[in-house]
Amino acid sequence: MLRRRHKTPKVQATPREGGTARTPRTRRRAREGAVVPPDLRIQPQHRAAPRAEARAAKPEAAPPPALAKAPPAAKAPPAARHAPPPRPPRAEPPAPRERREAAQRRAPVVLVTGFDPFGGDEVNPSWDVCSRLPHEIAGLRVETLRVPCEFRRAIETVAAAIERHQPSIVLSLGLAAGRTHMGVERVAINVDDGRIADNAGVQPIDQAIAANGPPAYFATVPVKAMVAAMHAQGVPAEVSNTAGTFVCNHLMYGVLHFIAAKGLQVRAGFIHVPCSEAMVLSRREVASMSVATMARGVEAAIAAAHAHSEDIAAVGGTLD
Fold it and tell me: Could you please report the per-residue DSSP string of 102-121?
């Protein structure tokens, strides 16, 4: 008699992580009252929780305070000995007016002088003209000086101003009542012969201005070029060959002698001006010229003196 062989139930392999254990299948039906030995029982396999769920189920412990990341420390400043020196505060640029004034201070100077009133007159147009001149002419800074109408003191006053301002040109003005034109003087002679006394009451007669000086000095400014420039401005002007023998001639000679004795690189000259209109209100048959016209002529003469280092060739002589 053949026995029926019992088939051993197959045990399924352990499911992969995340899978589910399967119960072994059999075609045989369980008998009622059949006892299965414990060692033959198949233990039910429980589904393993995914790693993500396991991590979520198990809270991650917070790191101890000692291991927490500290905030970045502030960078220490460099050593003082390596620090660059502090920069000085930036100076503000000068205002236009300040720049203009600074440029004028650096510009070459023309010194223009005029006299006090003398001989009983209340005004002197030579100083009135100086008061009307601009502060700058042809790139030259204009410095004006009022001179006492006195022998010797006039020279000392202008000589001190030359040393103070160090001009490149000195142009002195003086009154010659009765003239119809502005006269640019060519020469000054070494003699004082006062027709009247000066403002200090001094009246030298036939005295030398400089005992050891030359008989005469010629102007070192271009007299003919200056006259031509004045004509171009519509101002009556002429070359004059005599500066007289009063304080005007005295000052012209004294300034040229001082410049020569000091060896200065300064050019100098003299212009005689007519009476102003205010001076002839009660004088008949006396020529006059407006102060504005004379000032325009002097301004043109200064520009020409600055522009011409040598004089031009032009007719400027007289028959008398």
Answer: HHHHHS-EEEEEEEPP-TT-
